[in-house]
Structure formats: structure tokens, C-alpha cells
Amino acid sequence: MNHKTKKRFQEFTFILPALIMFSIFVAYPFLQGFPISFTKWDGMSPGKTFVGMSNYLRIFKDGNVINATKNTLVFTAVTMVGSNLLGLLFALMISRVSKLNNVLRTCIFVPYCLSLVLSSYIWRYVYSDVFYDIFGVPSPLGSTTWVMLGLAVISVWRDAGYCMVVYIAAIQGVSTDYYEAADLEGATGWQKFKDITFPMIAPAVTTNFTLLLAWGMKVFDYPMAATAGGPGRASETVAMLIYNNLFTYFRAGYGQAIAVVFTIAIFAVSTIVSRTLRAREVEI
């Protein structure tokens, strides 16, 4: 075994435990449920009726699927952009090492340590009892127009701290020599950010955007805990729609078909976004 092969084998052993766990708890259940998507089944009775591609054809005509997809995309876009912008802003402000900055980092990161369900309950209270009492603004969670934006704010509040930590690590890895040279050339703060900081932290941008995209597209906890999909299905996401079909409406075959299409869509979109951003890294 040559050195290169030995090194690759050692690298593979590091990911082997995660690969085994993924295979057992994600890949195998997904493949096991794939045949169910071609059946009409309530999820409990022993008999399944084979219906071919009818479940898949129904997806593209179902208004509930269209509504859930729209809600999911709105949530994903807002939380992905909002979390990254706030995280980057915080990182630029407190990236230097100091006692005060350490305290600020901790305070900003703490919300990410809370569970998604607890975060939803906290903000449901804030919207209904704090904002309304102080500003007289009704809770967005009760509005069919603003409910997804209200849920996205919860996600931004929680995930901005995570993005901040990634960006701080990337910023601290940029050599100060670049900034010293820029100072000698009389570069402004914006020019240093545009021409030095942002290009050098491009891999961190790719990582954060890809992760937030995947998290946003499969969101379930926020709408389930804060609104239960209401009002009037205005906050029902694709993940909630799958859950409802499987466990509430007892349409396991149809729910599984949506899950298959949804999983493929997440994989495809995440791959495209990741490759596009990585190609952009090279251009920068």
C-alpha cells in the first residue's frame, strides 16, 4: 500500500462511523419506504394496493403541495439570507479577540443552543404578549400574510449565531499582511472588505449558505410548534405536509411519494447551489 492510498484509507476511516449511521438511519429507511410510494396504503392495515405512478402524478396537481412548496421557499429564502447577513455583520464587528467581544459572541451564539421547539414557544410568547403590549402590533403568527416571515425571524434569531461563529473563524484565518498592504495603498474599509475579506472567506459563505438552504427546505419544528400549520395552512411546509399525510390523513403511500420527490429536490438544489458557490470561489 503506497503512501497516497494509505492516506486515503486513513481519511475514509474518519468518516466511516458517520457513514454507517447515515446508512442505517437515513439511507436504509428511505430505500425501504420507496416501494410504498407506489401504493395506496393507510399506514396501518396489512394490505397495500399498487397504484403505479398515480401518487407521483397527483403531486403536481395538488394545490396543498403547491402551497406548502411556496411557504417552504419563502421561509428558506428569508432565513438563508437573513442569518448569513446578520452572522457576517456580527463577525465583522466582534472578530477581534477581547473580553467584551467574547461576551458578545457568547450572547449571540446562545440562541443556537436552544432547541427549535423551545425557540418557537419563546417567540410565540414574544409576538403575542411582548410586541403587542409594547407596540400594539398583532402577532404575525396569526396572519396568513405574515406568518412565514414571522417564523423566518425565529430561525434568523437562532441561526445567525452559528453563521457568526463560522465567519469569525474564517476572518481570523485571513493574514494581516493583506490588510497592512491595503493600508499602505490607502484602501478604504469597504475596499478591504470587498477585495480582501470577502474573497478570502468565500468557502465559509458557501458552507453557511448550503447548510441554511438545506435546513430551511426541510423545516418542520418551527411551524409545527408555533402555528401547527395555521392559520388556514398558511404556514404548512412540505415537511409538515408529508407528516400530515402519513400520520393525520392516513395516506402513507401519497405521503411517501411526496417525501421521495422532496428528498430528491433538496439534494438537487443543495448540490447546484454548492457547486455554483464553489465555482464562484475560484473566480474570486
UniProtKB/TrEMBL annotation:
Sequence intervals crossing the membrane: 12-31, 73-94, 106-126, 196-217, 253-273
Chief location bin: membrane
SUPFAM superfamilies: MetI-like
Originating species: Enterocloster hominis (ex Hitch et al. 2024)
Residue span(s) of domain ABC transmembrane type-1: 69-273
Annotated localization: Cell membrane
Keywords linked to the UniProt accession: Cell membrane, Membrane, Transmembrane, Transmembrane helix, Transport
Similarity comment: Belongs to the binding-protein-dependent transport system permease family.
Keyword Transport among record annotations: yes
InterPro entries in the record: ABC_transporter_permease, MetI-like, MetI-like_sf
Topology of the protein relative to the lipid bilayer: Multi-pass membrane protein
Protein name per its UniProtKB record: Sugar ABC transporter permease
CDD domains associated with the record: TM_PBP2 (cd06261)
